Prior knowledge:
417 residues; six-stranded parallel β-sheet; four-stranded antiparallel β-sheet; 14% strand
Amino acid sequence: MQLFAFGINHETAPLSLREQVVFHAENLVQALRDLVDRHPVKEAAIISTCNRTEVYCHTEEPGQAMHWLANYHKLKSQHLEPHLYQLPQERAVKHAFRVASGLDSMVLGEPQILGQFKDAVRTAEQAGTLGLLLNKLFQRTFAVAKTVRSETDIGASTVSMASAAVRLAERIYPSISEQSALFIGAGEMIELTATHFTARHPRHVTFANRTLERAQHLAERFRGRAITLNELVSQLAAHDIIVSCTASTLPIIGKGLIESALRARKHRPLLIIDLAVPRDVEAEVGALDDVFLYTVDDLGNMAREGLNVRESAVTQAEAIIETQVGDFMQWLDNRELVPTIRALRDDAERARRREFERALRRLARGDDAPAVLEHLSHALTNKLLHAPTHALNHANDDDREQLASMLRRLYQLKRSE
Length: 417
């Protein structure tokens, strides 16, 4: 069994492919069980965000796990494989440390990914697919991410996706305070984006969600109003800025809906920011006049600005991670020796018990105690040294010196002159 990770992210795959391999929260537990129950995979955890889908597993046959990913999403393997990165053992460890520390994110240093890692671990625990190896990996991952953030400035001046959305709006409109904003969805990203936008005091703020209660919660917090998704048809035209991030598997805003809104708006500009993966807005909307449509990838490119400011922090972070990878791999290597160590100790314990019981029988017969102890010590010495001395005496010329050197090292012996 070996540690293995594979997946796609914003650097290896376009948005059109990433949205096809997203795992939605409500299906993730069953997906993990499907992977472990039907394939030679002992442990598994899945991280699925707008920027990446990654599988971490403990398996002897990584190829079958990768085929599972394509089959699960009803994709042809040859369509997915060119975009997959494959990370065995040490590379998987380093990748996990870098991702959780924000070094592999679209927005360098962004903190949300660490929370997404923790969500993935909780889901794997719920599914029963998190074992000793992955649990150890992720606990170390969390510790490394904490060290990187506390000992470097990797998160300093980070331009988040939410703040990038505000900057984008400010490029299109002279003042956000004169515009109306509509936020579709009620998750963490919508809440974060709304926080940035409302700091600019837009004229009106509306929250739309499938569940009205969740929209009302945000509306109360940001002094806006709440509507259901069914009301979008009549409400879109009243807003200048639309930010959408739902968990829908299909687009909720189509070209026809936007065309109707534009006519009602008399073709005043409409900014749409689609942060969802899969996308909430049909791609064809971007071709309409008077519509500015931006996806999560577009905002990611904007958010990379200021990268040079944090280059020294990246160097520090990479050094921390390199050291931590070495420590984890040493633990992993030692773990593979556990069966051998256990067998060695079991063999010694059996020899000890036999000689101990023999000594007890002699003492019960009334034999001299010092003589019994003397015989016990000699017998144990002979038992424990029999295997190495026998191997040394029967080694061929090519192996004898190497074996002798190994025994001197094991028993910390000085070479006699």
